[in-house]
Amino acid sequence: MRSLIKTIIYDIDPNDIDMNKIKICSKVLANGGTVAFPTETVYGVGANALNPQAVKKIYTAKGRPADNPLIVHISDVKSLYVLVDEVSRATEDLISAFWPGPLTLILKKSKAVPDTITAGLDTVAIRLPMHPIAINLIKEAGIPIAAPSANISGKPSPTRGKHVVDDLFGRVDIIINGGNCEVGLESTVLDMSTNQPTILRPGAVTKKMIEEILGKEINFHETNLGNFEGEIPKAPGMKYIHYAPKAEVIIYRGEIDEVTRRMELDLERYVNLGKRVGIICTESRKRAEGDGSCLAFRGNLFSQKTKQEPHPLASVKSMGVRGEYKTIAANIFRILREFDDEEVDIILTEAVEETELGQAIMNRLIKAAGYNIVEVSNVN
Questions:
Q1: pTM, two decimal places
Q2: Co-location of 181 and 314 in the same domain
Q3: Residue 207: strand, helix, or coil
Q4: Structural domain boundaries enclosing 316
């Protein structure tokens, strides 16, 4: 069993930053330590990107495979030019439009970037976050910070300070609890290292938004678990199972009323087998028409005695109002972690429409489910 690190937890208000605490954290980073901190996307666990021994501590803390490259975070655009060999005009246009923000760019790396960051690839992934704690921490440290999501590798990404404490307490030097992450999904990863820009991981900066800046159509890399046998992926989240809770996850995709009926049938089947079931649905599916107090799945989720008494083997959580993708994105990882806390055996979830931000949401859900998708047709 690995020996535990003495972890310090600092509560820092992003709207009233305690710079004394930031300075302590930055010194830990500069001296080769590890600090978990919030960004606008998810929490990251950071180390000095130019120090290979410090970077290895990230892999150890997370239990992360060594062939899974890391994203380097910077606090200003000028730092980019030290880390990469060339910045094209198109890349500069994207930087002007989306930095600081939830866009990661993959570019040809310079000699300053160690192979431990890139898993030996000749490219590096770089982002300039907009979260005030992240920006102040990186700026005060005076170094680029490698920072993948601050979770045990493969688990749902952390969007709350509590999530980081649950996963990494005793594994990192400092955890900054800076409240909830606004976006709730990892950054969009865009490969700009070739002549054809390609989205390797969808996020809040959507394909349409990027195409409007570049003035041309870009590619979207479709991945599955078998696509990288013997290969090193260019970006995080491409090769291995990611974002997965302890429970099995099943996604139901199809016409919404038929999806609801199929989920009800499967719910009843699993409950009859004694399984604890979690349901993820949109608000309109959670609440019955008219009274707002009863679940749409009321025939199975509630006992016969009263509509207000939950079934002991089933739990339902709303991801948000259908079509309000920003809210849904911010809730998904939180819900998966709550079901872990409730020790459910299986999670049944609605799909969302794969347009704009919905594409990023489905990307995370599909990987959390290990590509376990039920395509629902008419249920009679």
A1: 0.89
A2: no
A3: helix
A4: 248-375
